Amino acid sequence: MPGLLLEDKITRKGTKTDGMGNGQTRVRRVMKTLSLDRASYRLRHGESEQLRHCLSPQQVQLIKDTWNILKEDLAFIGGSIFKDFFETRQEIKMYFPKIVRISESNQLEWDIDRNMLQQHGLTVMQGIGAAVENLDDSRFLNGILFTVGQSHVNRHIKPNMLKKLWPSINRCFRRTLKEHYTEDAEEAWQLIFLYICAHMKNGMQNKAS
């Protein structure tokens, strides 16, 4: 039927192929992917200069509600994110010489400065907090993210490396928020993360020589 909405088409296809309720789960996953793809496209093409334009009112409320829980211990959560990041992405360690050092015996073993690890994690969480606090007007935030992106160039970090941090953030948010970290909350936070990455990437690609 030509007038059928995309959601209706997906729903009918899902329910027809699976009568056990998995069709609706599949619909949610497809719609989540479409939502993230649309947001990613708009950000890549400079169509979203305001964070609020990437989120629905319901997503904004989810972000605010879950942030009230997360902000209780930013240093611990931030440190946990980067501990997870270094454990699951071993190749990333070399880009953080102030945090990860070769052992004194000069062996291929890594010694992590846990204070620096937690401090860097805290800085990242404070950046995420700035995004939450500037949901209504993100112009000031965009300037900060642009500058932070430029500073990452000095550490030889490439734009395509930024998104590699998301799985670690996602796992740590899920452990911290527990039942409050619903699929909708996860999607909202991923949109925040995509927005941050897009504006940092803009700074990285426009680094003055």
Written account of the structure:
By secondary structure, the protein is an all-alpha fold. It has two domains: 1-47, no CATH class; 50-205, Globin-like (Orthogonal Bundle), CATH 1.10.490.10. Helix content is 64%, strand content 3%. It has helices at 6-17, 22-44, 57-70, 74-88, 114-133, 139-153, 166-177, 183-205, and strands spanning 100-102, 110-112. It has a two-stranded antiparallel ribbon with strand order 1-2. A hairpin with a 7-residue loop joins strand 1 (100-102) and strand 2. Helix 1 runs antiparallel to helix 2. The longest helix has 23 residues, at 22-44. The radius of gyration is 19 Å and the shape is globular. The model is unreliable at 1-17 and 27-31 (pLDDT under 50). This is Globin domain-containing protein. GO terms for molecular function: heme binding; metal ion binding; oxygen binding; oxygen carrier activity. Keywords: Heme, Iron, Metal-binding, Oxygen transport, Transport. Belongs to the globin family. Residues 54-205 form the Globin domain.
